[in-house]
Amino acid sequence: MNVLVAGAGKTGIATANRLCGWGEAVTLTDSKSIDKIDKGNLEQLNEKVKLEADGYENVIGIDFDMVVTSPGIPWDSELLTSFRGRDIPVVSEVELAFRNLEGDWIAVTGTNGKSTTTLMVGEMLKAAGIPSVVCGNIGNPVIGEETLFQSKKLVVAELSSFQLEGVESFAPKVAAILNITPDHLDRHYDMKNYREIKSRIFQKQGAGDYCVLNYDDRTAASLADEVPSKVFWFSIKKSLKDGFCIKSGDIVLMAGGEETRIGASSEMKLLGRANLENGLAASSIAYCAGASLDALRKVLFSFEGLPHRMELVGEIDSVRYINDSKATNVNASIKGLAGIDNSLFVILGGRDKNGDFLLLSELIKEKRATAILVGEATAKIFRFFAGYDKVFKVGSLEEAVEFAFLKATPGSSVVLSPACASFDMFRNFEERGEAFRQIVANFSGRRKGGGVNA
Q1: What is the CATH number of the domain that holds 432?
Q2: Residue 454: what pLDDT?
Q3: Quick one: which of 93, 154, 295, 411 could link to 132 by a disulfide (CB 3.0–4.6 Å)?
Q4: pLDDT computed for residue 310 by the predictor
């Protein structure tokens, strides 16, 4: 079979190598020139793979038997539409992996919280003694996980909307949609299309499978009537008849009219309402996959989370500094900030993703929090705070931290919650979060007046 792999990033390289190992004739293409492609990735490419870089002119007219696309290439790009227009199958790497793996799948998607939830599920399954591999959008492509092709293990995959665009027969044993809020609309155009793409995670499931949905998220919950499998709910707002929810501050499982207490939500090490949601989601998913309640408890109250996601990076003079650099859209910021009730300083801004900052500004005003604006989106965000007396503009992330450092009083929280992409000043959200962490560390030991504590 003659196969084209589109995109020479981590996913494309792993896909090309896997296909080559299966004996297929593989061509790998990328719009970038060879010198712009990551050298570390290219060094791992099987020498039998034909590389066509610097544009798609040399591949776009060839009658390949199949095209496997990487998530970074839009589904409506000229490259992919040209092949589909000639009835040449175009699938995602996830679809290819699903067709060729024997084990069952757990698939987790959502606008926010995917990585934390997926990792928690993996830890819960591990604690329950269920062999599994965590992979996908979390950083290691499913197709590249050798252990999955050597033995039958449960696949625990974080999936983005970009990956779900190219699935056809994909049918996980447990699917989960954590939430659906505006994001990536520059690629998906509108919420109707975005919702439909997310729903592909469950569309081919059977009656014996499970779909975990967030009762509190209006768009995710609206999908329940379309689910062909068994719906399993979680909620931090409503006392459910069946599912994981909160009662009097406790995390409980409601099943068949019976209530089982898991533990106090306050005992979780993860910070914020968003992480409470993630914890309930992970518990629901792992429970549907067969994990014991003891395994859920063990992980739920010991898991410390991922970097850059409501991560406590320091405490200076009884002021907590929290890194939520992964909050790259408005809804992610709202979820992270909603659970903080003490005096609050919020560092906002970056590169605008066409976000609507109205609800976020209203939450900040309601909390009488201080908003510190930085980055390209400063002028736009500032308009949403018209007339508010606790909003300030600064020129850099360091100035933002220094402003909060000088103004915050004991018991306050300073949260980097940008609600924007990082690309105006940083390569990615990780670099932005690491910069925040280092700036906070630099301020540790300083007096408010600028000196150093003896």
Answers
A1: 3.90.190.20
A2: 31
A3: 154
A4: 87
DSSP string, 128-183: TT--EEEEETTTB-GGG-HHHHHS--EEEEE--HHHHTT-SS---SEEEE----S-
- CA nearest neighbour of 214 among 222, 206, 205: 222
Domain count, the chain: 3
Contact 343, 411 (CB under 8 A): yes
- In sequence order, what are the residues at sequence separation of 6 or more whose Cβ sits closer than 8 angstroms to the Cβ of residue 121? 106, 108, 134, 156, 282, 285, 286, 289
What pLDDT sits at residue 453?
39
d(CA 213, CA 109): 10
Which stretches of the chain score pLDDT less than 70?
182-189, 447-454
Mapped onto helix, strand or coil, the DSSP state of residue 75 is: coil
Predicted structure pTM score:
0.83
pLDDT at 307: 84
pLDDT of residue 449: 54
H/E stretch holding 373: strand 370-373
Residue 135: give its domain's CATH number. 3.40.1190.10
Q: Are residues 110 and 26 in the same domain?
A: no
| Side-chain-side CA neighbours of residue 298 (13 Å) | 15
pLDDT at position 298 is 97
Which residue among 300, 319, 343 closes a domain? 300
Whole-number Å distance between alpha carbons of 67 and 88: 7
**Domain coverage including residue 148:** 95-300
Per-residue pLDDT at 181: 82
Is there a contact between 238 and 216 (Cβ–Cβ < 8 Å)? yes
pLDDT at residue 330, rounded to an integer? 93
Query: What is the model's pLDDT at position 184?
Result: 57
Are residues 376 and 260 located together in one domain of the fold?
no
In this predicted structure, what is the pLDDT of residue 221? 97
Look up residue 193 and give its two tokens. Answer: 């299309």
Helix or strand (DSSP H, E) at 13: helix 10-21
Determine the Cα–Cα distance for residues 310 and 306; give it in Å rounded to an integer. Answer: 8
Helices within 309-396 (DSSP H only): 330-338, 358-366, 378-383
Q: Which pLDDT value is given to residue 452?
A: 38
Q: State the pLDDT at residue 231.
A: 98
Is the same domain home to 148 and 274?
A: yes
**For residue 117, is it within any domain?**
yes
Listed residues 33, 58, 88: the one ending a domain: 88
Is residue 297 within 8 Å of residue 124, measured between CB atoms?
Answer: no
